[in-house]
Amino acid sequence: MAQQLEIEFKNLLTKQQYEYLLQEFHIQENAIHRQTNHYFDTPSQAIKNRQSGLRIRQIDNYYECTLKEKSAAHTHIETTDVLTAKQAQLMIEGKGFYAHEVAKRLARYHISLDQLAVFGSLTTDRVEIPYKDGLLVFDHSFYLQCDDYEVEYESKDATKGNVIFDEFLQQYQIEKKATDKKIARFMKALQAEINNTNS
């Protein structure tokens, strides 16, 4: 189990900007890794209502369950448990909850484990590059009928990270956009799909 503070900045990209950055940073095909997030919440969206997110992430044969809780504008507290493939599958099927440290955090907010269920999955092709005392991430995500592109910068310092990320966007002439987290983008797409079905 690990608990850590995550400081990250993100900005949506166009497909052309994403492909240009892959060329500029000389990214080879084998440097792109696929991961899938399975998102959980209760029917009353108890986790979303706390500005938090709960997911199981699969990267090849590695599985982890993470609760992300917002603590400041670009900062989250992450609580993570590593899972076996069997534990992850049972949790996705709603047959138990095996992320013990995450369960302790949820208990503090009186969120019932029995109420949790997967409401969707999102797959990302990800590139990670060390960059100016932090980590630069290029993501191509696909979910429902959508696919999108973004750049993230993870930093140990919110103030420095903000400056470095702004300079990066200026250098590559990328317009700064308010960018939701992946789970929020997924939720918007899901809601739009439900609205279209009902209309």
Task: Explain this structure.
With 199 residues, the protein is an alpha+beta fold. It is 29% helix and 42% strand. The chain has helices at residues 15-24, 85-92, 100-108, 158-171, 182-198, and strands at residues 2-13, 33-41, 52-59, 62-72, 75-83, 117-131, 134-143, 146-155. An eight-stranded antiparallel barrel has the order 1-5-4-3-2-6-7-8, surrounded by five helices. The chain is globular.
- Helices and strands, in order, run as EHEEEEHHEEEHH
In which range does the helix fraction lie? Answer: 25-40%
Biggest sheet descriptor: 8 strands, antiparallel, barrel
Shape label: globular
Radius of gyration: 17 Å
Low-confidence parts lasting 5 or more residues at pLDDT below 50?
Answer: none
- Name the average pLDDT: 95
Span of the ends, CA to CA = 45 Å
> What proportion strand?
35-45%
- Look at the helices and sheets and give the structural class: alpha+beta
Instruction: Give me the count of strands.
Output: 8
Multimerization state:
single chain
Give the count of helical stretches.
5
Strand sequence of the main sheet, in spatial order?
1-5-4-3-2-6-7-8
Strand and helix map with partners:
Elements: E1 2-13, H1 15-24, E2 33-41, E3 52-59, E4 62-72, E5 75-83, H2 85-92, H3 100-108, E6 117-131, E7 134-143, E8 146-155, H4 158-171, H5 182-198
Antiparallel strand pairs: 1-5, 1-8, 2-3, 2-6, 3-4, 4-5, 6-7, 7-8
Short description:
The protein has 199 residues and is an alpha+beta fold.
